[in-house]
Design a protein that fits this description.
The protein is α/β, with parallel strands linked by helices. It folds into 2 domains: 214 residues, Rossmann fold (3-Layer(aba) Sandwich); 167 residues, Glycogen Phosphorylase B (Rossmann fold), CATH 3.40.50.2000. It contains 19 helices and 15 strands. Helix 2 links the parallel strand 1 and strand 2. Helix 2 runs parallel beside helix 10, helix 12 packs parallel to helix 13 and helix 12 runs parallel beside helix 17. The longest helix has 20 residues. It is globular and about 65 Å long. It starts with a helix and ends with a helix. Belongs to the UDP-glycosyltransferase family. InterPro entries: Glyco_transf_N (IPR058980), UDP_glucos_trans (IPR002213), UDP_glycos_trans_CS (IPR035595). GO terms for molecular function: UDP-glucosyltransferase activity.
């Protein structure tokens, strides 16, 4: 009679999923959480990461401890082609794009072939390649090597649909060219008619082929349905951070949710929040890439101070252009903040948004931040920076109606009025809608919810690829 260990040895290895994100925090975050979900499904997962980002990740997060409980997980590191003293953020953040294409991708391709597509005694060759939507080399690489390709969209589905429909928008002359009004509504986008204006469209175009989205049908169901007409399998499994929380609780797993923070989180802000009244604080953060000028900082500072609201503001050291950090005007204003607000360099955002003292979020409208705010039931004032953020802010204000969109302006009076509107004048109205929407998106990752079922569908699809 064979023992349990003998049966274990005879059991074929599970699917082996390769995950490759762009090496920036907003892309690492959801794709690390997908890796965690697949590990909970007892898959083998190989996660591609730069040497620099792995060092920062292990230094500032509990990722190492969390993944130590996932025996099927492994990092594979590569140089990103930039010198050690390169900041990889601020005004030089986008330099990594060409460096990844010219250095990381060729090394990755050589490694895959040399190591027989990561096969080992314990692992089968990769079953499928889950690639960030910004990695344009992935579809061709997969086709050449017979590897099933799964596209992961880190941006909002609405934004990717806008990109997918770009030729039709161009044909209908609805692209904002030739002096046309930026406020004119777009009518050539099924599922988004009468919502999106020309000014809400993405500022650049990328190749889009969608399969997995960090969204849910309750937020973007119409758009997901339109994309499904063009792609055979669409899995909307978000909000992915709540999906992980639910699956961990369901399995009674001894692990915490993994957050891909590349900066040290200042947790003293949680003590400060503990001392504030309920729903009295507006949290301010423009994410990991956005840049603001000295003049814009002054407008935001005056707007916040004039609103008479308490605030917690994340100001990355590299986020202000045109200032060496010793600006006397900024220093004076920072002094005025004392007693009215708190500035930190980085914060544990999900914990902040779920703190009872927080009643609003002044945000750049990145998709991770938007989803985290929605799931926490926190209304938003949206000041988008680039990419999908311009589309997200429009949906926050006009579709989900859980915030205000102040894009294309940075005026202290407008900022003051928007904050007062959100936190005081229409506070009850915004809070009620935000809390109701939070209940809806949380249900979607619970057993029987659409995102819960879609994740199960994704897991079964990957299992079906094993030959």
């Amino acid at each position: 009679m064979s023992s349990a260990s003998d049966q274990e040895k005879l059991r074929p290895p599970p699917p082996h999923v390769l995950i490759f994100p762009m090496p920036v925090q907003g892309h690492l975050n959801p794709m690390l959480k997908l890796a965690h979900l697949l590990c909970l499904a007892e898959f083998h997962v190989t996660f591609i990461i730069s040497d620099f980002n792995q060092h920062r990740l292990l230094q500032h997060t509990a990722a190492s401890a969390a993944f130590s409980r996932c025996p099927g997980f492994q990092f594979r590191t590569f140089p990103d082609g930039l010198p050690d003293d390169h900041p990889r953020s601020g005004h030089r953040a986008m330099e990594f794009v060409s460096s990844v294409a010219n250095v990381t991708v060729p090394l990755f391709k050589k490694m895959m072939i040399k190591e027989n597509f990561l096969a080992s005694a314990a692992r089968r060759p990769v079953t499928c390649f889950v690639a960030d939507g910004l990695l344009s080399f992935a579809p061709e690489f997969c086709e050449e090597n017979g590897i099933p390709f799964i596209f992961f969209g880190t941006a909002t589905t609405s934004y990717l649909w806008a990109i997918f429909r770009f030729p039709q928008l161009l044909e209908a002359q609805e692209i904002p060219l030739g002096g046309k009004s930026m406020d004119e509504l777009i009518e050539s986008m099924p599922g988004m008619e009468g919502i999106i204006r020309r000014r809400d469209l993405p500022g650049f175009v990328e190749r889009a082929q969608a399969v997995v989205f960090n969204t849910c049908e309750d937020l973007e169901g119409q758009i997901v349905a339109e994309i499904h007409k063009h792609v055979p399998r669409v899995f909307s499994i978000g909000p992915i951070h709540h999906q992980v929380k639910h699956r961990l609780a369901e399995k009674k797993a001894e692990s915490s949710i993994i957050t891909a923070s590349l900066w040290a989180e200042d947790r003293s802000c949680m003590d400060w929040l503990d001392a504030q009244p309920p729903r009295s604080v507006i949290y301010v953060s423009f994410g990991s890439l956005a840049l603001v000028t000295r003049e814009q900082v002054l407008e935001f500072l005056h707007g916040l101070l004039d609103s008479s609201q308490r605030f917690l503001w994340v100001v990355r050291p590299d986020s202000v252009t045109g200032s060496d950090g010793n600006d006397p005007v900024l220093t004076e204003l920072m002094e005025r903040i004392k007693g009215k607000g708190l500035l930190v360099e980085w914060a544990p955002q999900d914990k902040v948004l779920n703190h009872p003292a927080v009643g609003g979020f002044l945000t750049h409208s990145g998709w991770n931040s938007t989803l985290e705010s929605i799931a926490a039931g926190v209304p938003m004032v949206c000041w988008p920076y680039f990419a999908d953020q311009t589309t997200n802010s429009r949906f926050v204000s006009e579709v989900w109606k859980v915030g205000l969109d102040i894009k294309d302006t940075c005026d202290r009076k407008i900022i003051e009025e928007a904050i007062r509107d959100l936190m005081d004048v229409r506070k009850d109205e915004f809070m009620e809608r935000a809390e109701n929407l939070a209940k809806v998106v949380k249900r979607t990752v619970s057993k029987g919810g659409s995102s819960y079922n879609n994740l199960d569908g994704l897991i079964q699809y990957i299992k079906s690829l094993v030959v």
